[in-house]
Design goal:
The complex is a heterodimer of chains A (about 120) and B (about 110). Helices cover about 0% and strands about 50% of the residues of chain A. Chain A has about 120 residues and is an all-beta fold. In chain A, the strands form two sheets. In chain A, strands 2, 4, 5, 6, 9, 10 and 11 form a seven-stranded mixed β-sheet that branches. Chain A has a four-stranded antiparallel β-sheet with strand order 1-3-8-7, with no helix packed on it. Chain A is globular and about 40 Å long. Chain B has about 110 residues and is mostly beta strands. In chain B, strand 9 and strand 10 form a beta hairpin. Chain B has no helices and eleven strands. The chains are: A mainly beta (about 120), B mainly beta (about 110). Chains A and B meet through strand 4, strand 5, strand 9 and strand 10 of A and strand 5, strand 6 and strand 10 of B.
Chain lengths: ~120, ~110
């Protein structure tokens, strides 16, 4: 595809349910990032993948959050037993790996609403 | 620890007036700075990066290591500049990028 693709674009679910968010990065981008965007909070880093491994999971808010990436491509972010404070826009970004920090290309995000 | 501070949540300017969006950073290593922009109903996208030393859509930003700042400037604001602007700090080979909380720029016609 031409850009980073995220699905679903919107997700409404009840408190306590599990949700799975998907990210398709730009082909050839080795690095993949997940962020959470909340009103007034800016972009909160969640996790970073280099290939299929996650060298930095420091941003995951709790053990209810997990992410994986397979085939160096698609990534899924899973939130178990959702809470109302999980409501936010979840953004995925991808980039090349190179010398120094590379520009990130963002998807449209998944707007998650927990009732 | 890396930190990016954007002190203004909202900046309102009149069309044609100069714009300066402030960004200060905290990082002990050699910083790599970016500005990202999100226009209404569009995805977040790169505006410019300090190593490119270029002007994009009339915007420029100079890295001032002494003041640890990377302010975004434009001499004459246009209505289409209204958007959310995020300053971001990269840490070189590690790839992690820290974003500020963002500044909403509102250009008044």
């Amino acid at each position: 595809g031409a850009g980073v693709s995220q699905s679903p674009s919107n997700k409404v679910t009840e408190k306590g349910k599990d949700v799975e968010l998907r990210c398709d990065p730009i082909s050839g981008h080795t690095a993949l990032y997940w962020y959470r965007q909340s009103l007034g909070q800016g972009l909160e880093f969640l996790i970073y993948f280099q290939g299929n491994s996650a060298p930095d999971k420091s941003g995951l808010p709790s053990d209810r959050f997990s992410a994986e990436r397979t085939g160096g491509s698609v990534s899924t972010l899973t939130i178990q037993r959702t809470q109302q404070e999980d409501s936010a826009v979840y953004l995925c970004a991808s980039s090349y790996l190179g010398q120094g920090s590379q520009p990130q290309h963002f998807g449209d995000g998944t707007r998650l609403s927990i009732l | 620890a890396q930190r990016v501070t954007q002190p203004e949540k909202l900046l309102s300017v009149f069309k044609g007036a100069p714009v300066e969006l402030k960004c200060n950073y905290s990082y002990s290593g050699s910083p790599e700075l970016f500005w990202y922009v999100q226009y209404s109903r569009q995805r977040l996208q790169l505006l410019l990066r300090h190593i490119s030393r270029e002007s994009i859509k009339g915007f420029t930003a100079d890295l001032n290591k002494g003041e640890t700042s990377f302010h975004l400037k434009k001499p004459f604001a246009q209505e289409e500049d209204s958007a959310m602007y995020y300053c971001a700090l990269g840490s070189g080979g590690y790839q992690k990028v820290t974003f500020g909380t963002g500044t909403k720029l509102q250009v008044i016609p």
